[in-house]
Amino acid sequence: MRSLVRTVGHLQRLAAFEAVGRLGSFTAAAAELGMSQPAVSKQMKALEGSLKTALFVRESNRSELTREGALLHQAVTEAFDLLEARLSRRRGHLDQLRVAVQPSVAESWFVPRLDEMRSAVAPTDIQLSIFDHERELADVDHDVSVRFAEGSQPGMCSERLVTEAVVPVASPGLASQLGLTRHSPANALLTAPLLHVDHSGRNWQDWAAWFAGNGLTYVRPSETVVYPTYGSAVPLAISGNGVLLSWRTLMGDHLRRGLLLEVGPLVTTPSRGYVLQWPSALTRDPGLQRFRSWLRRAVSSQESEDPQR
């Protein structure tokens, strides 16, 4: 039995707590739940006693949440919303797997292979849920996620898909103009026009880390334009507006088509990379097993098709 259940005694108390906090009244909550007002009051006193925390400021006609009560109510509401969504999907008899991915990963690994993926994973229906920053992942309804990580996340199962391998890329025109090739040394890029992406909430390499991996120090100029997402910087790189620091496995299609060229050394970080993560309860799920097998093949194919290797 989970420690939470042991702590609060009965999950029914959390249901009553959610209703009182949402409606602001013990009487209204009792009516909604089909209970008597004294029974709801007893449940709330028991919950406060088990948590050793006051959850309400009781007034004559209303019951206001304390600060601790408001924080708990938010967590309980989010948990109930998630549970309701999952139960709703089961009532609809959907064999569905929701996969949370970042836009660049979706564009590179999933979108070009949607038909192939659906065929390989059938009868399970794959739904992609997009998140950008790591902090957004908790708000995205998903069963499993493909995310950048260093090490494993507590309570989750994970499978490494690719190790972090970052290389600068540029359009053929800009590369020719700057005299850059895939064999150019890192110091040749110190004076090149570099495209910068906002790394807030993202742990992968930026230019400072890439130069450091080549034994060089780089400080971004204060007036530099920083683009909000990786996807917003890719068209600028293709049109020749600057050199972009890129994941090799995310640029496969652009490299194969000759829209971008590698123009410097590859820097790898073996301890970090993209992983597939899922709750242990899903490990034996047939849909997840089919999806894992397909994703391994897709990523392996993406790496082997790199024409500049």
Describe the structure.
With 309 residues, the protein is an alpha/beta fold. It has 3 domains: 3-91, Arc Repressor Mutant, subunit A, CATH 1.10.10; 96-162 and 272-304, D-Maltodextrin-Binding Protein, domain 2; 163-270, D-Maltodextrin-Binding Protein, domain 2 (3-Layer(aba) Sandwich). 42% of the residues lie in helices and 21% in strands. The chain contains 12 helices and 11 strands. It has helices at residues 3-8, 11-23, 26-33, 37-51, 67-91, 103-110, 114-121, 172-178, 207-213, 230-238, 252-256, 286-304, and strands at residues 56-58, 63-65, 96-101, 125-130, 144-150, 156-170, 194-197, 226-227, 243-247, 261-262, 267-279. Strands 3, 4, 5, 6, 7, 8, 9, 10 and 11 form a 9-stranded mixed β-sheet that branches. Strands 1-2 form a two-stranded antiparallel sheet. Helix 2 (11-23) crosses helix 3 (26-33), helix 2 (11-23) crosses helix 5 (67-91) and helix 3 (26-33) crosses helix 4 (37-51).
Gist?
The protein has 12 helices and 11 strands. It has 309 residues and is of the alpha/beta class. Strands 3, 4, 5, 6, 7, 8, 9, 10 and 11 form a 9-stranded mixed sheet that branches. Strands 1-2 form a two-stranded antiparallel ribbon.
Topology:
Layout: H1 3-8, H2 11-23, H3 26-33, H4 37-51, E1 56-58, E2 63-65, H5 67-91, E3 96-101, H6 103-110, H7 114-121, E4 125-130, E5 144-150, E6 156-170, H8 172-178, E7 194-197, H9 207-213, E8 226-227, H10 230-238, E9 243-247, H11 252-256, E10 261-262, E11 267-279, H12 286-304
Parallel strand pairs: 3-4, 3-5, 7-8, 7-9
Antiparallel strand pairs: 1-2, 5-11, 6-9, 6-10, 6-11
